[in-house]
Amino acid sequence: MAKLPNILPVTDLRQDAAAVLKRVCRSKEPLIITQRGRAAAVLLSAEVYQQAEHERHLLLLLARGEKEIAAGEGYDLDTILAEADALLRAAEQ
Fold first, then answer.
1. Sheet of 38-43, strands arranged across
2. Mean pLDDT over all residues of the chain?
3. pLDDT higher than 90, residue 76
4. What is the pLDDT of residue 2?
5. How far is it, in rounded angstroms, from Cα 20 to Cα 43?
6. At 35, phi and psi to the nearest 5?
7. How many CB atoms lie within 10 A of CB 45?
């Protein structure tokens, strides 16, 4: 069974923002903020946001590589593996 998303009306956020922030940081799950019954924003902990941005950056690099391969351009495997290792080491820090 799929997990239900965490949803909170903006009025509840206004009433106790500190507790909501604590909940989001502790759960590491996104919180959908609604306004007038519709999704208006998503609240993430800074840690989760940074991880998502890192993953998005890696996906962009992969997409760029696919385009380069299709165009007959690119770099040799050893160079790519060294860059990937550096990115992974940076992510662990």
1. 6-9, 31-35, 38-43
2. 90
3. no
4. 61
5. 9
6. -140, 125
7. 19
The token pair that represents 8 in the structure block: 């909170």
**Distance between CA atoms of residues 74 and 29, nearest Å:** 37
Domain spans of the chain, in order of start? 6-44, 47-92
**pTM strictly above 0.90:** no
Residues with Cβ within 8 Å of residue 40, at least 6 apart in sequence: 10, 33, 34
Rounded to whole angstroms, the Cα distance separating 84 from 48 reads: 21
For residues 15 and 20, what is the distance between their CA atoms, to the nearest angstrom? Answer: 9
Q: Would strands 31-35 and 6-9 be described as parallel, antiparallel, or unpaired? A: parallel
Superfamily of domain 6-44: YefM-like domain (3.40.1620.10)
